[in-house]
């Protein structure tokens, strides 16, 4: 239901309604939370853990209030719909409707309780902060500290469940139970440990200002990540999303492959910001999937195209779906080094997806003949986003500012550009008022967009502390190396499988945190450089969003496109298949991550040609003819040579790449085969 619809419904009961009062509270709290983040970025008036506590309470309360607003909106819409129904419908649905209303009422009450408890718990921590931070670790904690810590942990579990489903919430609960001394001594093999009491678990989970206050996961999340998500909210209120879609739509009209470019461009940009493949698929897919189907693309392919593009957006610098910030802090390296390391992997993935989309559309005859010239006015309409992005890149890359400071300057620049645009170009007070409203709305939207992440980041903080304190993380890394018998290839395969399994159903930042604690140390022990190991597991955690049986991004896309989930999964795996092989090239060609000259300049184009061969092998089409399995086998062998041939010699890699290009050129000179053949 749209905002205008809900506003219309609420207005029928008058202006001063509970729903309008709730919305006003959301506006005030959202704007305050964003301004609080910007103030902290400017002043650093508090130490980070104290700032984190205040943000945690306000953010969780905001999240619960937004959930309550959705319940109210759904309830009022149902009242309007059922009120206009026949008497027969009202009578026949009376009993189930009453049950549903009772459940909705109970859940609404629990939402209010959750918001109150979040505020009460964090206010208690704030009032006793000095004692908890300085004195309690030495002289001990009070009973009330443990009660408040337990309340905060329960609120975090509930908020995580509401925002991202039962999986992550369940993992947090299991990690806490696993740490307890009732269960720990009875676990088999490497899972066994001595265990902790409830007091120790609550102390590590909350009141010692760790766990839900984890300095790396939650501290970075509520500062570096928060300010960028808030920037994205402000940018969207100024029309960034509309401009990206317009740009993709205009680009689509100039190419034979049509609107598939919308899915690719819009999804990779928005996916980098949102950090959630499912949320990105839902946002951009609601526009792109119907347009793909209108062009003639089959529904399972349309859902697959959008889900793969949305998942890969989390690899795109400079934000990388918020994982870049976490990676920089975990590794203790400059943020700009993570941007550099992620650039070539992102280019490889999106190039392979772009080629795959082109070949799939061309092979199946889903092309369009109604192409037009590119309208450059679309680019001009997005000029107002250039200065903020220039400030962001200059601040991060040249000045080497922290993401928090760079994000502050970027937001200020965006405000200034919006004001100047309204006053100088529009030359109207009305234009200035519009931009002012967009600014205020962006402040609210940025905080609202950030709110669901607060619970999951805190939950991951608890999970990581439980895994580390019980010794399980170290044991898993050792076991990983042992299973591979010290052979790097086997360990890499086990690491790939583990990363995908741990990531199933999870947002990528959460999946990355989990796999990097459990899996990456084993790779590093075998000599893989740190950033390379992190990029390797992150890539597969990202791809878990399109991997069955969960394939959360495909599930969302298939619902939007009314496609069969299993068929959409199959097509998503075909389109995204090169992504499962590209990460191994990072291990072989380390210069793709750690740039060095001339090694990077040589390795990148050779690996790029290898990814083209991979795509051709999987799609079975080279842009002019359908390939039999013999041709596919040749392309596959050459692809492996171009991707991994440097293990033997760079000359082998270069020869394989040359042969791939020669086959493509030779094939495209031949007569095209009919495109009406059945799809393989």
Automatic annotation (TrEMBL):
TRAP C4-dicarboxylate transport system permease DctM subunit domain: residues covered: 152-593
InterPro entries assigned: DctM, TRAP_DctM-Dct_fused
One family name in Pfam for this protein: DctM
Transmembrane segment boundaries: 21-42, 109-127, 139-157, 164-183, 217-238, 259-279, 315-335, 347-366, 378-399, 406-425, 450-468, 480-504, 510-528, 535-556, 601-621, 633-666
Keywords: Membrane, Transmembrane, Transmembrane helix
Superkingdom in the source lineage: Archaea
Protein name listed in UniProt: TRAP transporter fused permease subunit
Source organism: Salinadaptatus halalkaliphilus
